[in-house]
Q: What sequence folds into this?
């Protein structure tokens, strides 16, 4: 479960909040653009802590799944005790309040890299791969439309007609303008060499999207001349064919993401 809200932590501002579960461990992470605070404890220890805070409420693993891990509406409160952040999360189940307490400590440089910087770079690389795959798909669709037109197809509703896709024009028309950056991330992602180095650094492997035996089979070619079914039938005019190279789709997968954080 992830959230993004305003909190009065070390400095008042917007913070990301994330709860996750791996095997029997519950992890709470609070982060902003400058640092990260976190606690990881076993499910049994979290249940024991809640029983001590509120003996009248039976805290179970199912209750944790219905609240922390379900992504429901929550309210947060912060209490600074020395270097420790007492972070309280409150839910309402059938109008009954259920709260959990986490004792957060500021994360190290390695934890910031593991839980924040590397996931951001992985997301950017995956998004770049998705964009490239979509561009190739649009190009194939343009070739398909051109083939229909070459075979005599016409569009009656010209209001839905589109121009062939152009990457440069599409990027110019994106309604988002980034501030000036010291490190131009876009330049790094546009280079095959740089992307390859980033993927190695982030333990990302590139794989074919469809590895089934049928995926490697060649598509049937479009006939250029219709075959005659009878010897006395006159030969029909050869159709004009627009050819295209079928570019293999690709996606990226993450390896050893959990191991590097341990």
A:
């Amino acid at each position: 479960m992830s959230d993004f809200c305003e909190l009065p932590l070390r400095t008042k501002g917007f913070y990301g909040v994330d709860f996750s579960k791996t095997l029997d461990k519950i992890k709470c992470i609070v982060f902003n653009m400058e640092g990260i605070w976190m606690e990881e404890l076993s499910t049994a220890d979290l249940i024991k802590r809640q029983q001590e805070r509120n003996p009248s409420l039976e805290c179970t693993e199912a209750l944790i799944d219905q609240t922390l891990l379900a992504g429901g509406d929550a309210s947060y409160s912060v209490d600074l005790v020395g270097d420790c952040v007492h972070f309280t999360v409150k839910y309402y189940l059938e109008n009954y309040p259920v709260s959990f307490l986490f004792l957060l400590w500021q994360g190290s440089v390695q934890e910031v890299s593991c839980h924040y910087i590397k996931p951001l770079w992985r997301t950017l690389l995956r998004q770049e791969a998705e964009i490239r795959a979509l561009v190739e798909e649009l190009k194939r669709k343009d070739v398909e439309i051109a083939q229909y037109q070459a075979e005599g197809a016409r569009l009656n509703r010209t209001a839905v007609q589109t121009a062939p896709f152009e990457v440069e024009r599409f990027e110019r028309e994106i309604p988002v303008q980034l501030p000036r950056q010291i490190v131009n991330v876009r330049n790094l992602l546009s280079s095959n060499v740089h992307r390859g180095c980033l993927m190695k650094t982030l333990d990302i492997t590139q794989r074919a999207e469809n590895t089934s035996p049928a995926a490697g089979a060649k598509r049937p070619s479009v006939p250029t001349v219709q075959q005659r079914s009878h010897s006395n039938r006159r030969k029909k005019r050869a159709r004009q064919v627009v050819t295209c190279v079928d570019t293999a789709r690709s996606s990226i997968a993450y390896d050893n993401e959990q191991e590097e954080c341990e």
Summary: The CA atoms of residues 204 and 254 lie 5 Å apart. Confidence is low (pLDDT under 50) at residues 211-238, 241-251. The first strand starts at residue 2 and ends at 8.
